[in-house]
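Supplementary Data S3. Sequence and structure tokens for construct A.
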Amino acid sequence: MDSLTASKNYWAKCTGKESRHAAYHLLVQLVMASQQNLEALVEHLVTLHHTLNPDSLKEFQYAPAVDGRGSSGFVGLKNGGATCYMNSVLQHLFLIPGVAEDILAVCSDKENEDSLFYQLQMVFAHLMESQLQYYVPDKFWKCFRMDGQPVNVREQQDAFEFYTRLTEQVDDYLKSQAKEKVFAQRFGGVYSIQRICQDCPHRYEREEPFLALNLTVTKCHDLQDSLDQFVKGELLEGDNAYYCEKCNQKRTALIRTCVKTLPPVLVIQLKRFGYDWEASRALKFDDYFKFPWILDMGNYTADGLAEQEEELSSGCGSRGATPSPDPKDSESSINLSVTATSSTHSPLKARKSGITSGHTPKISARLRHKGAIYELVGVIVHSGQASAGHYYSYIKDRR
């Protein structure tokens, strides 16, 4: 037992039901086994009951507003009414190894409690260290801005839009403090926007950074089918032909977007929301959509597509099963989705440009070990309709 002197912090030593029972039974065994222990315990209890210092009793009047941290070891976030979109994203970010630690390692202005970065630190600190069942991030709600405007906690917003705004604002703050961008470092990849002339050897490329892949759901059966559509591109010909600056004339050209640089953590948004302009109403696409536990992004990178072109042009393209990747060599992956799904494999479709055949070309071991293999570690799910519903998360614990 601690001394009965006054203290400013009154925390119960045993906050859980099991620990309190264990402490009680320990005291019983101690006093049953020793007369000296019994006398010491009685002396403490007599002092406690007859003390004139009311502050000494506060430690024994500990009654938290909520229950203690659950047996799972995780701390929840209170829903402010319709802030489930925030909670699902924040819990994802917190459980990515190193993110919370890097955020908390930055010295912020504690006097400015209206700072979004400071309040994000408070959220992560409570998720990490709190002994209570959940944390109420009310100050985070107040300081977060969506397009410069405060959010109504009883109005549903899009989880992916929240992810985008939060990561941008936090990284902008870190940049202003001459610190490394935490989210861009983990989620940041680079697109390659290519213009490939068909009637001449000239190619043009423009790079563009991204923090997530945005993939369509409609008319696609699974993630690989959607990725095929993503890199398929568009053939510009006739009146819409591309002007080749090196040839000084219009050429038939393929314009496509693929991935130049893959990030350590790949975020994928499935575009399940749309808008019917004629009916003036929001839409949600509930199409069945599958995605795999292990994803090979090699086919959808600039290097992978170039290797496929080389195989086909040399006549070496051959059908054959691509060896299964070893999850132990995988980079981590997070999938920001609005419906929970699972996995399959689909061949690349034949394309008008002739860049791929009707099968999936084999990707060399060189590409397979350049961080192109991802393991699924989380899904954000939206249940309900476009205008109303609920977000929740499935997250693999890797901390």
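Construct B, processed identically:
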Amino acid sequence: MTVGPKRASLWLGVMMGLVACTGDVGSDDDGSGGSFFATGPGAGAGTTTGGGAGVTTGQGAGTTAGSGGMGAGTTTGAGAGGCDAGPLPEPIPNCQPTPLPSSGDFHQDCVDRINQFRWECQCLPPLARWAEQEGCSDAQAANDQASNSPHGNFGSCTENAQNTCPNWGSEQQVIGGCLQMMWDEGPGEPFSEHGHYLNMSSTSYSKVACGIS
């Protein structure tokens, strides 16, 4: 995620930048579809786009992305004992773990929340905090917010994938809402409807930088 230094603004822009374990990550979309965004509740919640540096909209079916995880029958995660057999091939359905208490540091809270989804919902290993690129991620978020256009600087922080949450009203809404909505997309095709989850759950990435503006 990439988020920039806080400004006197009602709306929050958040970005997540991921880097591969070694080199670039190959995928069905040739790695260029790593940039992806989810708009906040004040701007048509759930709308998504996908397609790399040249963003192509995926509205339509994508406008309801994330809504399927809500309602009765939700689960809170596998728990420590449920991961003894290693990573699950697919996420636990309707997995909605309660956000962890805030550390007071949004960048850390963002990484913790991503890792909470990875572990509690699919028994995936955690991503390391990419602290040295958080300032760059902050700048990416600020630039996208200023231009009102997502992913304008995709790749400038040497990231291999990028998710962004523009126009969310608070840090708490990003942690509890936007990241949940991204995870709820789940696996599948096309990338334009599942790219947030695919980026967050990939085992090809080793670390993540979150930024905010």
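Strands lie at 12-20, 35-38, 48-50, 56-57, 128-129, 161-168, 205-212. The radius of gyration is 15 Å.
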